[in-house]
Design a protein that fits this description.
The protein folds into 4 domains: 114 residues, Conserved hypothetical protein from pyrococcus furiosus pfu- 392566-001, ParB domain; 55 residues; 96 residues, no CATH class; 181 residues, no CATH class. It is built from 20 helices and 8 strands. It has a 6-stranded mixed β-sheet with strand order 1-2-6-4-5-3. A hairpin with a 7-residue loop joins strand 4 and strand 5. The longest helix is centred in the last third of the chain and has 23 residues.
Length: 483
């Protein structure tokens, strides 16, 4: 027995006498906290935000559950086997501060040593159960597990092979998620450590990864250089904009500007090209489909009119986002539809309506509205902001032809629970007016046009100009938007 332990459960001796204890059974013992060390590969790297509260609880009431520990072959100290690193640190601190015997000894379940991989997976499972890990912490841990498996097997593993190995060890993780983790650790972590450590999550990583891919396609299609040259630009910008309050919008603006400068092209033209490529983007087999333009990095503020990261009045990505003159020459109906959809989503995203806009293929203006603004959003807004949001909703509805398109063409596209669908199918204008605030149309200028930021106003103009151009093109072809 390692020095510093003493048996605390007498019935173990009795059980041994009857042959009920073997080398594979965990043992319950009291172990000196000085004889235990935290697990070096612990997935959790940040300080537990509950550290002080837990410390006070242990100071007053003692440890309420045993630590789970093990011992590597040939070592003289135990190591935490599955969770409990925070509690061990607290006990060690309290004993150093007080020399109180209450904190010198900890009840411990002692597991026989198996493998390094099994211990790391045990810690990963324990943290998953408590939801304690950030995205980057879990990504690092999974890549550590992969390295251990490869060392153990003497060969490299694909993400699919790792997913199968993990499943055989009772830890289910899809290969697409493993691919995200690898991208995060291998590509983003060296150039964006502050943003990731501050809590940049899965949705933001998915969004950035997909944006990088479509931007690289535009870079290559315009003959601006090889893959390595684009990667150099991307990594340089990642380093430049790495910050705990990292903003996708600011980063995307900077990357678009780099492409526009390299191509000697206007920023607006490049942005429209990337917006179209985002909508057409087909995820790779190992890539989870992202919500590129609709997803927000952070919750809405109470006013529901910005991203929660920075004001859209000052964000460079949203200055001069549209130049209506660019629309005049286009005759590609589906390209115009994609443009209308991209701009509608961008407008909706800034005002808490991102989930309402739904792209459609080869019909209408390229998008429809799923429903009216949610009651929860409406209740969170003051009267002025609700008026602005409601009028914007009506502008989007007009460009999508929600109330003038054939009901048979449009209603079936909407969710069965949609108030808007019910109003259309029942031809009940009252139901619609009761569900989305409809201020006096004469107040449009005062409540909407004058209040919109420059970026929103430009995008609204682009959306209406695109709508007009769509009707000109389909009319010249003897068709309608809903043919």
């Amino acid at each position: 027995m390692i020095q510093g332990t003493e048996t605390a459960v007498v019935h173990l001796e009795a059980a041994a006498a009857f042959g009920q204890v073997n080398e594979g059974m965990p043992l319950l013992q009291r172990v000196a906290v000085t004889q235990i060390k935290t697990y070096e590969r612990n997935p959790r790297r940040l300080v537990n935000p509950e550290f002080d509260r837990i410390k006070q609880s242990i100071r007053e009431c003692g440890l309420d559950q045993p630590l789970v520990i093990t011992c590597r072959p040939g070592e003289t100290q135990y190591v935490v086997h599955a969770g409990g690193n925070t509690r061990l640190k607290i006990l060690q601190e309290l004993y150093a501060e007080t020399h109180d015997a209450r904190f010198q000894w900890a009840p411990c379940v002692i597991h026989p040593w198996t493998t390094e991989t099994a211990v790391l997976l045990a810690h990963l499972r324990e943290n998953d159960l408590r939801g304690a890990l950030t995205f980057i912490e879990k990504a690092r841990a999974v890549l550590d597990v992969m390295a251990l498996f490869e060392q153990q097997l003497g060969k490299s593993l694909t993400h699919r092979e790792l997913a199968e190995l993990l499943r055989s060890h009772g830890y289910v993780l899809g290969h697409s998620r493993i691919s995200q983790f690898a991208y995060t650790v291998e590509k983003l972590l060296p150039v964006m450590p502050q943003a990731l450590d501050a809590g940049l999550g899965r949705s933001s990583v998915e969004r950035l990864r997909a944006f990088e891919r479509v931007a690289a396609q535009v870079w290559a299609r315009r003959g601006l250089g090889d893959e390595a040259s684009f990667d150099g630009v991307f990594q340089t910008l990642c380093r430049r904009y790495d910050d705990p309050s990292w903003s996708f919008e600011v980063f995307a603006e900077a990357l678009e500007m780099e492409i526009a400068t390299a191509a000697d092209e206007r920023l607006h033209t490049i942005r429209m090209e990337i917006d179209g490529a985002q909508i057409d983007h087909q995820p790779d087999a190992d890539e989870a489909p992202p919500k590129l333009l609709r997803e927000r990095d952070v919750p809405l503020k109470s006013r529901g009119v910005d991203s929660g990261v920075e004001s859209f009045e000052t964000s460079p990505r949203h200055r001069a986002t549209a130049e209506p003159a660019d629309l005049q020459g286009s005759t590609d109906i589906n390209a115009l539809r994609r443009r209308a959809c991209a701009v509608a989503i961008r407008l909706a995203e800034r005002h808490g309506l991102a989930d309402i806009v739904m792209p459609i293929e080869a019909q209408g203006a390229g998008f429809v509205l799923r429903d009216v603004p949610s009651a929860a959003l409406a209740e969170a807004l003051d009267e002025a902001t609700l008026g602005q949001l409601s009028m914007l909703w009506w502008h989007l509805a007009a460009c999508a032809e929600m109330t003038v398109a054939p009901v048979a063409s449009i209603a079936a596209l909407l969710p069965a629970t949609s108030v808007l669908r019910r109003a259309l199918e029942q031809n009940d204008a009252t139901l619609l007016f009761d569900s989305v605030w409809t201020p006096d149309p004469g107040q449009m200028g005062d409540r909407l046009w004058r209040q919109l930021s420059a970026a929103d106003w430009q995008d609204l103009m682009v959306l209406m100009e695109t709508y007009r151009r769509l009707h000109q093109v389909v009319g010249a072809a003897g068709l309608t938007l809903w043919s």
